Amino acid sequence: YFLLMIKKRSYKTIALHGFNFLLLQVLSMSTLFCQTDPAKYTARLWNEIQHTARDSLKIEKLFDLTHFYLDYMADDPSADSSSQMALRIAEMSHRPELLLLAYNRYNESVNLHQNYQRALDYALKAEQISFSNNDPGISFRNNNNLVSVYLSGYNWDKALEYSYKSLSVAGTADNNLWKAESYLDIGKCLEGKNQKIEAFRNYLNATELGEQSGNTGLLIKCYSRLSDFYNLNKVYKKAIQYKLMQSDLLRKTKPVD
């Protein structure tokens, strides 16, 4: 259906909708940024880090800072500093659970494409640390992060391998949220391999599970993915529709500060 729609569009219409889609992207990002006072938020986090004796909490807060520095302030040096501080705390402890936490949080907080080799090393170390662990939550998180790292390096086959591992864990645990996350990842891998129809089906599977669950964070991911997919295939009306649905959910979420 969406391929048929492409043929009906004039170049003028495509250009107009493309501009509108880009505008919506910018507005979505600026809405979130305006809800947060960067100076207050970072000061609060540093205060919490300095006043806790728990290494696990320090690591979590330091990676919260890393994520904020990168996504909201584009401050790469500060992000690198806070992430390295968290990793040092974990490595000096020699505690497997803290190393696992730090390696996973690193890959959930940084720009994976820019830090590909380091991110891959940490993801594989996390997998090795938890090899004998039967906790499905840990297995899913490790697999999910390996998918993200391989996707950032355009290694579609390895990303797809771990996506199916994630889906297997989700199925065994009967966890629909994990299933939806896995379908999104499988879709990204198949889209990278230019298998667009199968990718689209997986995005729809994820969205159906997301809408059944009513999970806002998952729905934001699903609508964002569908919007990007339609945009790349020049079905701009549908792209804008899902971008508006995503933006509406973003506005309803609790501000960072």
Short structural summary:
By secondary structure, this protein is mainly α. 82% of the residues lie in helices and 0% in strands.
Task: Describe the secondary-structure layout.
Layout: H1 2-7, H2 11-34, H3 38-50, H4 55-73, H5 76-93, H6 96-109, H7 116-129, H8 136-152, H9 156-173, H10 176-192, H11 196-213, H12 216-232, H13 236-252
Tally the helices: what do you get?
A: 13
| Main beta-sheet annotation | none
Helix content: over 70%
Radius of gyration: 20 Å
Q: Give the uncertain stretches in residue-range form.
A: 1-16
The chain-level mean pLDDT equals: 87
End-to-end separation: 42 Å
What portion of residues belong to β-strands?
A: under 5%
What string, H for helix and E for strand, traces the elements in order?
Answer: HHHHHHHHHHHHH
Sheet/helix structural class: mainly alpha
Question: What is the molecular shape?
Answer: globular
Number of strands: 0
Any overview of this molecule?
This protein is mainly α and 257 residues long. 82% of the residues lie in helices and 0% in strands. It contains 13 helices and no strands. The chain has helices at residues 2-7, 11-34, 38-50, 55-73, 76-93, 96-109, 116-129, 136-152, 156-173, 176-192, 196-213, 216-232, 236-252. The relative contact order is 0.11. The model is unreliable at 1-16 (pLDDT under 50).
Task: Output the keywords.
257 residues; mainly alpha; globular; disordered N terminus
